[in-house]
Amino acid sequence: MLTRNALSFILAFLIAFSFSFIIFNYSFDKMDEDKIVELIYSSNFQIRVAVYSFTNLRIAEALVAKYKEGVDVRVVVDETSVGTKAFNLLKENGVPLRVYKGEGLMHVKLIIADFRFAFGSHNYSYSAFNKNIELSYIFNELFFLKYLEVEQFFEEVWEVSSPA
What we know:
Number of helices: 6
Helix content: 40-55%
Low-confidence stretches: 11-30
Distance between the termini: 49 Å
CATH architecture: 2-Layer Sandwich
Largest sheet: 8 strands, mixed
Shape: globular
CATH class: Alpha Beta
Number of strands: 8
CATH superfamily: Endonuclease Chain A
CATH topology: Endonuclease, Chain A
Strand order of the largest sheet: 1-7-6-5-2-3-4-8
Structural class: alpha+beta
Number of domains: 1
Mean pLDDT: 78
């Protein structure tokens, strides 16, 4: 059994290492449609998506393919995406899909894929990837505690959303 001092030392070391990891060793890429699709296809365990506007069929097809492979996929959209071709494709293929019913808009643009995540201003739409000025990043080397915070955020959005 570790002593209190040993546990304190280990905790202090992990915290110090974690901050240096976040500051000096992160890697991120500017997001585009190909990178999101690649992120989805490279996932083996779980994919979580929370996005305001979802009309991109290519991303929807990638999510359906991974779901059919057995990857744990869940998607939350704002009401503005209900009835789009992408929404219908997810729903018709049984992908767990919810519509945000909380207060205000669910204006998030987030994907969690295994232990990586991407967020920013991009909706999953043609305009976002081809016309608009957007800024989003994919974090490939993810500090575990930050992953847990992002995952917890998704779970809270999921809970206040209704099945599609």
